[in-house]
Amino acid sequence: MITGKVLRRHAGGYLVHSDQLNAIFQCPLRGRLKKEGVSIFTGDLVELDEIEPAVSASERGSAVISARHERKNLLTKPFIANLDQVFIVQSMHQPEWNPLLCDRYIVTLQLELDHFRCFILLNKCDLAQNDEISALRNIYEPLGYKIFFVSAKSKEGIAELKQAVEGKTSVLIGPSGVGKSSIINQLIPDINLKVDINEDLLVGRHTTTYSELYKLPRFDPDTPRKQAGWIADTPGFNMGELEYPEPADVAWQFPEIIELAKECRFSNCLHTGEAGCNVEAKLSLLAPSRYRSYCVIVGDAQNEAKIRRESSSKIDAGSKKQVGGPNKARVLPRLNERFRASSRRKEKQNLNDIRKSAAELLDDETTDESPEDN
Ligand SMILES: Nc1nc2c(ncn2[C@@H]2O[C@H](COP(=O)(O)OP(=O)(O)O)[C@@H](O)[C@H]2O)c(=O)[nH]1
Ligand SMILES: [Mg+2]
Ligand SMILES: [Zn+2]
User: Fold this and answer.
1) What is the pLDDT of residues 296-332, one digit of tens each?
2) Nearest of 199, 205, 187, 204 to residue 235 by alpha carbon
3) With CB atoms counted within 10 Å of each terminal CB, which end of the chain scores lower, N or C?
4) Boundaries of CATH 2.40.50.140 in the chain?
5) What is the pTM of this model?
6) Antiparallel, parallel or unpaired: β 85-91 and 147-149
7) Domain 2-70 is of which CATH architecture?
8) Could you give the CA distance from residue 183 to residue 219 in angstroms, rounded to a whole number?
Protein backbone atom coordinates (compact mmCIF):
# COMPACT_ATOMS: atom_id res chain seq x y z
CA MET A 1 0.00 0.00 0.00
CA ILE A 2 1.32 3.44 -0.95
CA THR A 3 0.84 6.26 1.55
CA GLY A 4 1.06 9.93 0.69
CA LYS A 5 0.77 13.37 2.25
CA VAL A 6 -1.77 15.84 0.84
CA LEU A 7 -0.04 19.05 -0.21
CA ARG A 8 -3.09 21.00 -1.36
CA ARG A 9 -6.30 20.96 -3.36
CA HIS A 10 -5.82 21.03 -7.08
CA ALA A 11 -8.04 20.67 -10.13
CA GLY A 12 -11.02 19.10 -8.37
CA GLY A 13 -8.74 16.75 -6.46
CA TYR A 14 -5.53 16.92 -4.47
CA LEU A 15 -1.80 16.99 -4.97
CA VAL A 16 -0.34 14.14 -2.92
CA HIS A 17 3.33 13.50 -2.25
CA SER A 18 4.52 9.94 -1.75
CA ASP A 19 7.82 9.49 0.06
CA GLN A 20 7.99 5.85 -1.05
CA LEU A 21 7.74 6.79 -4.74
CA ASN A 22 9.44 10.17 -4.32
CA ALA A 23 6.84 11.83 -6.55
CA ILE A 24 3.76 14.05 -6.50
CA PHE A 25 0.48 12.73 -7.89
CA GLN A 26 -2.74 14.41 -8.97
CA CYS A 27 -5.43 12.50 -7.09
CA PRO A 28 -9.19 12.59 -7.14
CA LEU A 29 -11.05 11.21 -4.13
CA ARG A 30 -12.64 7.81 -4.62
CA GLY A 31 -16.40 8.18 -5.11
CA ARG A 32 -17.22 6.09 -2.06
CA LEU A 33 -15.25 8.45 0.21
CA LYS A 34 -17.00 11.44 -1.33
CA LYS A 35 -20.37 9.83 -0.66
CA GLU A 36 -19.39 9.14 2.94
CA GLY A 37 -18.45 12.81 3.26
CA VAL A 38 -14.82 12.09 4.19
CA SER A 39 -13.00 15.40 4.22
CA ILE A 40 -9.45 15.75 2.93
CA PHE A 41 -7.25 18.66 3.90
CA THR A 42 -3.69 19.78 3.40
CA GLY A 43 -1.51 17.63 5.66
CA ASP A 44 -3.74 14.56 5.61
CA LEU A 45 -2.09 11.16 5.24
CA VAL A 46 -3.88 9.10 2.61
CA GLU A 47 -3.70 5.72 0.90
CA LEU A 48 -3.18 5.78 -2.86
CA ASP A 49 -4.58 3.33 -5.38
CA GLU A 50 -4.58 3.02 -9.20
CA ILE A 51 -1.18 4.68 -9.41
CA GLU A 52 -0.17 5.84 -12.89
CA PRO A 53 3.41 7.10 -12.86
CA ALA A 54 4.28 10.18 -14.87
CA VAL A 55 5.21 9.39 -18.45
CA SER A 56 7.65 12.27 -18.74
CA ALA A 57 9.54 14.54 -16.36
CA SER A 58 7.34 17.50 -17.26
CA GLU A 59 4.14 15.72 -16.30
CA ARG A 60 2.58 14.53 -13.07
CA GLY A 61 1.46 10.99 -12.38
CA SER A 62 -2.04 10.27 -11.17
CA ALA A 63 -3.60 8.10 -8.48
CA VAL A 64 -6.84 7.77 -6.54
CA ILE A 65 -7.20 8.49 -2.82
CA SER A 66 -8.73 5.33 -1.40
CA ALA A 67 -8.56 6.04 2.35
CA ARG A 68 -7.61 8.71 4.83
CA HIS A 69 -5.62 7.99 7.97
CA GLU A 70 -6.78 9.04 11.41
CA ARG A 71 -5.62 12.60 12.12
CA LYS A 72 -3.28 13.53 14.93
CA ASN A 73 -4.82 17.01 14.99
CA LEU A 74 -6.58 19.51 12.74
CA LEU A 75 -6.18 23.26 12.58
CA THR A 76 -9.34 24.81 11.17
CA LYS A 77 -8.24 28.33 10.28
CA PRO A 78 -6.85 27.51 7.84
CA PHE A 79 -7.53 23.80 7.51
CA ILE A 80 -4.29 21.83 7.95
CA ALA A 81 -4.03 18.35 9.47
CA ASN A 82 -1.26 16.56 11.38
CA LEU A 83 0.80 19.52 12.50
CA ASP A 84 3.80 19.20 14.77
CA GLN A 85 4.25 22.90 15.38
CA VAL A 86 2.69 26.27 14.71
CA PHE A 87 4.64 29.50 14.43
CA ILE A 88 2.69 32.65 15.21
CA VAL A 89 4.42 35.14 12.94
CA GLN A 90 4.48 38.87 13.58
CA SER A 91 6.85 41.76 13.06
CA MET A 92 7.83 44.42 15.60
CA HIS A 93 7.27 47.18 13.03
CA GLN A 94 5.65 47.40 9.59
CA PRO A 95 3.14 46.19 10.67
CA GLU A 96 3.43 47.01 14.39
CA TRP A 97 3.64 44.21 16.94
CA ASN A 98 0.13 43.49 18.17
CA PRO A 99 0.14 41.80 21.61
CA LEU A 100 -3.58 41.09 21.56
CA LEU A 101 -3.32 39.33 18.22
CA CYS A 102 -0.46 37.20 19.49
CA ASP A 103 -2.28 36.24 22.70
CA ARG A 104 -5.49 35.62 20.78
CA TYR A 105 -3.72 33.20 18.47
CA ILE A 106 -2.10 31.43 21.41
CA VAL A 107 -5.49 30.97 23.10
CA THR A 108 -7.15 29.75 19.92
CA LEU A 109 -4.38 27.28 19.12
CA GLN A 110 -4.36 25.86 22.63
CA LEU A 111 -8.09 25.34 22.46
CA GLU A 112 -8.11 23.89 19.01
CA LEU A 113 -5.10 21.67 18.66
CA ASP A 114 -3.85 18.55 20.41
CA HIS A 115 -0.28 17.29 20.34
CA PHE A 116 1.54 20.28 18.93
CA ARG A 117 4.04 22.96 19.92
CA CYS A 118 3.37 26.65 19.62
CA PHE A 119 6.14 29.17 18.96
CA ILE A 120 6.26 32.89 18.36
CA LEU A 121 8.25 33.99 15.34
CA LEU A 122 9.20 37.64 15.30
CA ASN A 123 10.30 38.63 11.82
CA LYS A 124 11.80 41.91 10.55
CA CYS A 125 14.25 42.03 13.44
CA ASP A 126 16.32 44.34 11.26
CA LEU A 127 13.65 46.94 12.09
CA ALA A 128 13.53 46.24 15.85
CA GLN A 129 15.58 47.71 18.70
CA ASN A 130 17.39 45.38 21.10
CA ASP A 131 15.31 46.57 24.06
CA GLU A 132 12.08 45.81 22.19
CA ILE A 133 13.35 42.32 21.54
CA SER A 134 14.37 41.67 25.14
CA ALA A 135 11.05 43.04 26.41
CA LEU A 136 9.21 40.41 24.36
CA ARG A 137 11.57 37.70 25.48
CA ASN A 138 10.96 38.64 29.13
CA ILE A 139 7.21 38.41 28.72
CA TYR A 140 6.83 35.15 26.82
CA GLU A 141 9.78 32.92 27.56
CA PRO A 142 9.10 32.59 31.32
CA LEU A 143 5.60 31.38 30.35
CA GLY A 144 7.04 28.63 28.20
CA TYR A 145 6.49 30.19 24.78
CA LYS A 146 9.74 30.23 22.85
CA ILE A 147 10.31 33.17 20.54
CA PHE A 148 12.39 32.95 17.38
CA PHE A 149 13.82 36.31 16.38
CA VAL A 150 14.58 36.42 12.67
CA SER A 151 14.91 38.67 9.69
CA ALA A 152 14.10 37.32 6.26
CA LYS A 153 15.92 40.39 4.97
CA SER A 154 19.22 40.24 6.88
CA LYS A 155 18.94 36.43 7.35
CA GLU A 156 19.56 36.84 11.08
CA GLY A 157 18.09 33.90 13.04
CA ILE A 158 17.32 31.87 9.92
CA ALA A 159 19.88 29.18 10.79
CA GLU A 160 18.22 28.60 14.17
CA LEU A 161 14.82 28.44 12.51
CA LYS A 162 16.09 25.82 10.06
CA GLN A 163 17.06 23.59 12.98
CA ALA A 164 13.63 24.01 14.52
CA VAL A 165 11.69 23.04 11.39
CA GLU A 166 13.91 20.16 10.28
CA GLY A 167 12.00 16.88 10.16
CA LYS A 168 8.76 18.50 11.42
CA THR A 169 5.49 19.61 9.84
CA SER A 170 5.18 23.30 10.63
CA VAL A 171 2.80 26.06 9.72
CA LEU A 172 3.28 29.82 9.71
CA ILE A 173 0.20 31.78 10.68
CA GLY A 174 -0.15 35.50 11.18
CA PRO A 175 -1.47 38.66 9.61
CA SER A 176 -0.71 39.88 6.12
CA GLY A 177 2.58 41.61 5.49
CA VAL A 178 4.62 40.25 8.41
CA GLY A 179 6.84 38.23 6.06
CA LYS A 180 5.54 34.64 6.15
CA SER A 181 6.20 34.06 2.45
CA SER A 182 9.57 35.82 2.70
CA ILE A 183 10.63 33.47 5.51
CA ILE A 184 9.70 30.38 3.49
CA ASN A 185 11.71 31.79 0.60
CA GLN A 186 14.70 31.83 2.97
CA LEU A 187 14.11 28.25 4.09
CA ILE A 188 13.58 26.78 0.62
CA PRO A 189 15.93 28.02 -2.09
CA ASP A 190 14.35 28.29 -5.55
CA ILE A 191 10.77 28.27 -4.25
CA ASN A 192 10.15 31.95 -5.05
CA LEU A 193 6.83 32.46 -3.30
CA LYS A 194 5.33 35.77 -4.23
CA VAL A 195 5.68 38.36 -1.51
CA ASP A 196 3.55 41.44 -0.93
CA ILE A 197 0.36 39.75 -2.08
CA ASN A 198 -2.41 41.65 -0.39
CA GLU A 199 -4.39 38.80 1.07
CA ASP A 200 -7.31 41.05 1.95
CA LEU A 201 -8.07 41.33 -1.74
CA LEU A 202 -8.38 37.57 -1.98
CA VAL A 203 -11.10 37.25 0.64
CA GLY A 204 -14.24 35.78 -0.80
CA ARG A 205 -12.47 33.26 -2.96
CA HIS A 206 -11.60 30.02 -1.27
CA THR A 207 -8.10 31.41 -0.88
CA THR A 208 -9.29 32.44 2.57
CA THR A 209 -8.81 28.89 3.77
CA TYR A 210 -6.25 27.88 1.18
CA SER A 211 -2.94 26.52 2.33
CA GLU A 212 -0.15 24.47 0.87
CA LEU A 213 2.64 22.35 2.26
CA TYR A 214 6.15 22.70 0.88
CA LYS A 215 8.90 20.17 1.33
CA LEU A 216 11.91 21.50 3.20
CA PRO A 217 15.40 20.63 2.04
CA ARG A 218 17.84 18.77 4.34
CA PHE A 219 19.58 21.52 6.23
CA ASP A 220 22.01 19.39 8.16
CA PRO A 221 23.34 16.38 6.24
CA ASP A 222 25.38 15.25 9.28
CA THR A 223 22.32 14.43 11.35
CA PRO A 224 19.94 13.01 8.79
CA ARG A 225 16.35 12.57 9.97
CA LYS A 226 14.20 9.79 8.66
CA GLN A 227 11.30 12.11 7.93
CA ALA A 228 11.38 15.06 5.56
CA GLY A 229 10.33 18.40 7.00
CA TRP A 230 7.31 20.29 5.68
CA ILE A 231 6.14 23.84 6.03
CA ALA A 232 2.90 25.58 5.14
CA ASP A 233 2.39 29.18 4.18
CA THR A 234 -1.10 30.43 4.99
CA PRO A 235 -3.20 33.42 4.05
CA GLY A 236 -3.86 35.83 6.91
CA PHE A 237 -7.23 35.93 8.61
CA ASN A 238 -8.72 38.41 11.01
CA MET A 239 -9.21 38.06 14.73
CA GLY A 240 -12.98 38.18 14.49
CA GLU A 241 -12.94 34.75 12.92
CA LEU A 242 -11.27 33.11 15.91
CA GLU A 243 -13.40 31.17 18.36
CA TYR A 244 -13.81 32.00 22.03
CA PRO A 245 -13.87 29.79 25.09
CA GLU A 246 -16.44 30.32 27.83
CA PRO A 247 -15.48 33.49 29.78
CA ALA A 248 -14.66 31.49 32.93
CA ASP A 249 -12.33 29.23 30.94
CA VAL A 250 -10.15 31.99 29.48
CA ALA A 251 -7.90 32.06 32.57
CA TRP A 252 -6.87 28.46 31.85
CA GLN A 253 -5.25 29.67 28.65
CA PHE A 254 -3.00 32.14 30.49
CA PRO A 255 -0.57 30.14 32.62
CA GLU A 256 0.45 33.14 34.73
CA ILE A 257 -3.18 34.14 35.41
CA ILE A 258 -4.51 30.70 36.27
CA GLU A 259 -1.67 30.41 38.77
CA LEU A 260 -3.02 33.45 40.68
CA ALA A 261 -6.67 32.63 39.95
CA LYS A 262 -6.35 29.31 41.75
CA GLU A 263 -5.71 31.26 44.95
CA CYS A 264 -8.61 33.66 44.38
CA ARG A 265 -11.15 33.39 47.18
CA PHE A 266 -14.15 33.98 44.94
CA SER A 267 -15.42 30.90 43.18
CA ASN A 268 -17.23 32.78 40.41
CA CYS A 269 -14.63 35.47 39.77
CA LEU A 270 -13.51 36.36 36.24
CA HIS A 271 -10.41 38.13 37.65
CA THR A 272 -10.93 41.24 35.56
CA GLY A 273 -10.70 43.86 38.30
CA GLU A 274 -13.15 42.65 40.97
CA ALA A 275 -12.41 44.07 44.43
CA GLY A 276 -10.73 41.47 46.65
CA CYS A 277 -9.68 39.28 43.70
CA ASN A 278 -6.28 37.65 44.10
CA VAL A 279 -5.28 38.42 40.49
CA GLU A 280 -6.18 42.06 41.06
CA ALA A 281 -4.08 42.07 44.26
CA LYS A 282 -1.00 40.65 42.49
CA LEU A 283 -1.24 42.58 39.21
CA SER A 284 2.36 43.71 39.53
CA LEU A 285 3.43 40.11 38.84
CA LEU A 286 1.81 40.18 35.40
CA ALA A 287 3.00 41.76 32.16
CA PRO A 288 0.53 44.62 31.54
CA SER A 289 0.05 43.63 27.89
CA ARG A 290 -0.84 40.06 28.86
CA TYR A 291 -3.36 41.17 31.46
CA ARG A 292 -4.86 43.60 28.95
CA SER A 293 -5.20 40.77 26.40
CA TYR A 294 -6.77 38.59 29.07
CA CYS A 295 -9.40 41.21 29.94
CA VAL A 296 -10.24 41.91 26.29
CA ILE A 297 -10.59 38.21 25.52
CA VAL A 298 -12.83 37.65 28.57
CA GLY A 299 -14.97 40.63 27.52
CA ASP A 300 -15.30 39.36 23.95
CA ALA A 301 -16.01 35.84 25.19
CA GLN A 302 -18.81 37.25 27.36
CA ASN A 303 -20.33 39.00 24.36
CA GLU A 304 -20.12 35.88 22.31
CA ALA A 305 -21.62 33.75 25.07
CA LYS A 306 -24.50 36.22 25.26
CA ILE A 307 -25.15 36.03 21.52
CA ARG A 308 -24.97 32.27 21.76
CA ARG A 309 -27.52 32.19 24.60
CA GLU A 310 -29.89 34.54 22.81
CA SER A 311 -29.83 32.61 19.59
CA SER A 312 -30.02 29.22 21.28
CA SER A 313 -33.16 30.24 23.15
CA LYS A 314 -34.75 30.95 19.76
CA ILE A 315 -33.95 27.54 18.39
CA ASP A 316 -33.85 24.14 19.98
CA ALA A 317 -31.63 24.47 23.08
CA GLY A 318 -28.51 22.34 23.02
CA SER A 319 -28.53 22.02 19.25
CA LYS A 320 -25.23 22.23 17.46
CA LYS A 321 -26.77 23.63 14.34
CA GLN A 322 -25.02 26.63 12.90
CA VAL A 323 -27.12 29.72 12.45
CA GLY A 324 -25.97 32.68 10.38
CA GLY A 325 -27.84 35.93 10.64
CA PRO A 326 -26.79 39.56 10.38
CA ASN A 327 -24.87 39.59 13.68
CA LYS A 328 -23.18 36.29 12.82
CA ALA A 329 -24.92 34.52 15.68
CA ARG A 330 -23.67 31.00 16.07
CA VAL A 331 -24.59 27.96 18.05
CA LEU A 332 -21.57 25.76 18.41
CA PRO A 333 -20.56 23.21 20.99
CA ARG A 334 -18.83 25.03 23.78
CA LEU A 335 -15.09 25.28 23.32
CA ASN A 336 -12.98 23.43 25.77
CA GLU A 337 -10.27 24.45 28.09
CA ARG A 338 -7.06 22.63 27.59
CA PHE A 339 -7.39 20.07 30.35
CA ARG A 340 -10.88 18.83 29.68
CA ALA A 341 -11.45 15.50 27.98
CA SER A 342 -11.01 15.89 24.25
CA SER A 343 -14.33 14.37 23.27
CA ARG A 344 -16.13 17.69 22.74
CA ARG A 345 -13.22 19.11 20.83
CA LYS A 346 -13.33 16.04 18.60
CA GLU A 347 -17.04 16.60 18.20
CA LYS A 348 -16.40 20.15 17.11
CA GLN A 349 -13.72 19.06 14.65
CA ASN A 350 -16.03 16.50 13.14
CA LEU A 351 -18.67 19.16 12.80
CA ASN A 352 -16.20 21.48 11.11
CA ASP A 353 -15.14 18.62 8.84
CA ILE A 354 -18.67 18.00 7.76
CA ARG A 355 -19.37 21.65 7.14
CA LYS A 356 -16.16 22.07 5.20
CA SER A 357 -16.61 19.03 3.04
CA ALA A 358 -20.14 20.13 2.20
CA ALA A 359 -18.72 23.49 1.15
CA GLU A 360 -16.03 21.74 -0.87
CA LEU A 361 -18.48 19.55 -2.70
CA LEU A 362 -20.41 22.67 -3.61
CA ASP A 363 -17.44 24.63 -4.83
CA ASP A 364 -16.01 21.64 -6.69
CA GLU A 365 -18.97 22.10 -9.00
CA THR A 366 -18.19 25.72 -9.65
CA THR A 367 -14.58 26.79 -9.15
CA ASP A 368 -12.39 23.79 -9.66
CA GLU A 369 -8.96 25.27 -9.47
CA SER A 370 -7.21 26.61 -6.42
CA PRO A 371 -4.91 29.52 -7.18
CA GLU A 372 -1.44 28.25 -8.01
CA ASP A 373 0.38 30.50 -5.63
CA ASN A 374 0.07 32.86 -2.78
N1 LIG B 1 12.62 45.03 6.62
C2 LIG B 1 12.15 43.79 6.39
N3 LIG B 1 11.16 43.59 5.49
C4 LIG B 1 10.72 42.33 5.29
C5 LIG B 1 11.27 41.22 5.99
N6 LIG B 1 10.60 40.12 5.61
C7 LIG B 1 9.68 40.50 4.70
N8 LIG B 1 9.75 41.84 4.50
C9 LIG B 1 8.90 42.65 3.58
O10 LIG B 1 7.57 42.64 4.09
C11 LIG B 1 6.62 42.62 3.03
C12 LIG B 1 5.62 41.49 3.21
O13 LIG B 1 6.28 40.24 3.06
P14 LIG B 1 5.51 38.89 2.71
O15 LIG B 1 6.52 37.80 2.75
O16 LIG B 1 4.69 39.05 1.48
O17 LIG B 1 4.53 38.79 3.98
P18 LIG B 1 3.28 37.79 4.18
O19 LIG B 1 2.07 38.56 3.76
O20 LIG B 1 3.27 37.52 5.65
O21 LIG B 1 3.52 36.57 3.36
C22 LIG B 1 7.45 42.50 1.75
O23 LIG B 1 7.58 43.79 1.19
C24 LIG B 1 8.78 42.00 2.22
O25 LIG B 1 9.84 42.41 1.37
C26 LIG B 1 12.33 41.47 6.94
O27 LIG B 1 12.86 40.58 7.60
N28 LIG B 1 12.72 42.77 7.09
MG1 LIG C 1 2.29 35.64 1.90
ZN1 LIG D 1 -10.45 36.62 41.04
Assistant:
1) 999 999 998 898 888 877 654 444 444 454 444 444 4
2) 199
3) N
4) 2-70
5) 0.81
6) unpaired
7) Beta Barrel (2.40)
8) 15
